[in-house]
Amino acid sequence: MSDNHIPANGSSVSGSSAPRPRKRRRISPLTIAIWAAGLLVYGFLIVPVLVIFLSAFSPQEYPQFPPESLSVRWFESLFTSRQWHSALWNSALLLLIVTPLTVILGTGAAYALGRLQFRGKQLLQSFMLSPLMIPQVVLGIALLYELTTLRLINSIWGLVIGHMIVAFPYVVRTVSVSVSSLDSKLELASMSLGAGPVSTFRRITLPLIRPGIVAGAIFSAVTSFGEVSISLFVSSPKTITVPVRIFGYIDQTFDPSVNAISVIFIVLAVAALIVIDRTIGLTKVM
Amino acid sequence: MSEQGTRRISAKRGKASAGLFQWLLLSPSLLFLTLFLLVPFVMLLVLSFRDVDSLLTVLPTYSFSQYIDVFTTPAYSRTIGSTLWMALVTTGICVLMAYPAAYLLVRTPSRGLRTFFYILLVSPLLTSVVIRTFAWIVLLAQNGLVNEVLINLHLINKPLSLLWNMNAVIIAYVQVMLPFAVLPLATSMGEIPPNLRRASMILGAGRIRTFFRVTLPLTIPGMLSGAVIVFSLAAGSYITPLLVGGRLQPLLPLAIYQQAVQVFNLPLAAAMSITLLLIVGIFVALAGWATKRWEGRMRDV
């Protein structure tokens, strides 16, 4: 069957003039309707982000449309506020603890799951990815109850554990992508030449799955930095993170510097995205 | 022993020690997830069968009283019903909107445009949910942008109250969760061989008929896997409803949050959590079953 298709594909690629008249014929009202609907959907996705940018640079408390002038006063108030400083410090500290630990755990797990064959492997895989699907309010309350029992609730470790649980599946997923595209013959060759499993893993496997590890680290860092559902349950007044502080501000008062910090978050997210795209390819990970 | 023999033995030993090494790599994660994912859930399950006295102190006795409370109190039954309804509506709207978005992503002729669509789809996933929800408050508030624009266009005289109701929750949810519906759908749309659609059109089917007879059936699995994620997120998050819907919306995650953090009736919160987990579990299982049936049918055809 595929033999029949090759000439058809080949002709449409090589004959550059051929598709043109066909394209013109294809622009029907239906095509226009589908494109309009699709573009509307993408517009709907992007509107809130535009609103945040508009508000962050607006001189008034409430954003106006169209904006009359630009100002960076909300960014300034961000950098002079003590509360934002301590929240940023907590978030950064968490990120520095959570990311390496999650990456080490997740990489080991994804590699082992890719190579081992045993009964119940699928079940174990779903268990490892389950924090993505479990209602976050349930995850939060379950951890709150356990950590209260263990008396870990007023330290930063409750947050570390909560963030690791939600970031872990992302690392497993991205590293699994890299492991599944890694030819296991390379490892077998290394072992048959006398290298043990540890040095084979360190010198052959790790360098080859590095893109997946990098993407996993970025996802894990971004997840930890933005996590709020579980943090709200397990954080204490001393360990408030940026998203928890934002939540508090929105819930109780209105502080336009929230817009400014949101802009910083969004810029970081897009930067992370571009790095992932360069290292492993966006289409592969998602 | 011949050289070949020793090599074979050493290869075998290598394989065994590699297996051991892989289990060694897996065990820290197993330990971590057991301690902080499995154990908390077992503890939560046990807690949900505990009784409380009138001061909400947890008693050492066990019964079904919390579950009886959840299922017989009219307010809670209404909450379960509206949670289900809201999650289903959100899922339905997401799936409907996902089709044109996925179509554009897969069929766009320009690579730059495709990357741009991808960034539009994935960047919300990397932005904290509080931030995305906050944007909707700025948009929908009494003095928000939507009201301002409508008043400036003289379409309305006084601001509409767009926030603090279930519609606001659904609008914000759809925007927050749409990428989860689009991405798996786009994957399964991209896997359809273009010749299949071409064949259908050559055989005389119009584009609409081709969509319903070829594209739609083949994208059902991708659509369902997106729907499962959207449903479980919509049924289980509390941040967005709390911020744009208000504390009084009859939604199960909000009720759980209130019982746990404000009322401190932990056994009742645990029973509600287990109920919510069951609802999501049933939906996931149904979708999994439907996907399997559908794929089986597609293979037979």
The largest sheet of chain B, given as strand count, sense and whether it forms a barrel, is: 2 strands, antiparallel
The number of strands of chain B is 2
The H-level CATH homologous superfamily of the largest domain in chain A, spelled out, is MetI-like
The biggest sheet of chain A amounts to:
none
Low-confidence stretches of chain B: none
Largest interface: A-B, 92 and 91 residues
Principal-axes geometry of chain A comes out as globular
Architecture overview:
- The complex is a heterodimer of chains A (286) and B (301).
- Chain A has 286 residues and is mainly alpha-helical.
- Chain A has helices spanning 2-14, 19-26, 29-56, 73-80, 82-115, 121-129, 136-150, 157-180, 184-192, 197-208, 210-226, 231-234, 242-252, 257-279, 282-285.
- The relative contact order of chain A is 0.12.
- Chain B folds into two domains: 4-47; 66-300, Orthogonal Bundle (MetI-like fold), CATH 1.10.3720.
- A two-stranded antiparallel ribbon of chain B has the order 1-2.
- Helix content of chain B is 80%, strand content 3%.
- Chains A and B meet through helix 3, helix 5, helix 7, helix 8 and helix 9 of A and helix 1, helix 3, helix 4, helix 5 and helix 6 of B.
